[in-house]
Amino acid sequence: MASAGGNGSDPEFQVAPMIDVLLVLLIFFMSITTDQVAKIDRSITLPLAPEAKKRDHDLKNEVIVNVDWNPAANKTQVRFGAKVCDPIEQLVEIVTPIKAANPKLKLIIRGDADTPAIEIQKVIEQLASAGIDDISLSGTNR
Q: Does pLDDT of 1 surpass 60?
């Protein structure tokens, strides 16, 4: 990274290799964060929780379940990643092997603000029957 000329002058600092290293690190960090960002459905309007506090994330053990309310059909759509769980009982089939492989699994339910509470309760019941004991509800404080 530094080279000295043959004439006894001070070594020169090479900037180009440092820029290469920084670009590689930038690409690395962008690629590892893309997976978690892809799981969050931006079309869901989270309910307002003025006293909500930001919590620390455990990315290795957290999984997101999106619950979207369709008022026209008067029905919820439950998604685990890209998989739509219709009927909702499919959620148990998907989550059970994941819980067996990771006993520290935590589930975060991102429910639409318009979703009736009974529909969120149905999702929680399905997750509980799959053995999930750490469930959080996502909200926004803005």
A: no
